[in-house]
Amino acid sequence: MKEFHHHKFCPIRDILSRIGSKWSMLVLITLDANGTMRFNEIQKSIGDISQRMLTLTVRTLEADGLIKRDVYPEVPPRVEYTLTDRGRSLMPLLKELVRWALDNQEQILEERANLDAQEEVKG
């Protein structure tokens, strides 16, 4: 039996929990689709992300080397975000996951509804 519990550091949990959050994935996909973007453009593109959550998300992605933040000394300062080489190398995997989700969404939603209905009858 393969075990996935490590006493100090589990790279699977650490990395996947960071890139696997819905906001991280949406920011990465948005930057991949649109190229270099400013903070407000990312927020408008995603729509329902708060300013605080977007700030935390871009900081995390920057810390992991998946996006690059460029600050231009203008008044007001202009800040742009873009994917790094590492971030671009992740995109084929994320795109495949998105494709899989779209291909299976209808069936998954049906199965969830069926399970909910079964539990209502039991409960």
TrEMBL record:
Residues 10-109 form the HTH hxlR-type domain. InterPro entries: HTH_HxlR, WH-like_DNA-bd_sf, WH_DNA-bd_sf. Keywords: DNA-binding, Transcription, Transcription regulation. The keyword Ribosomal protein does not apply. Gene3D superfamilies: Winged helix-like DNA-binding domain superfamily/Winged helix DNA-binding domain. It comes from the Bacteria. This is Helix-turn-helix transcriptional regulator. It comes from Parabacteroides faecalis.
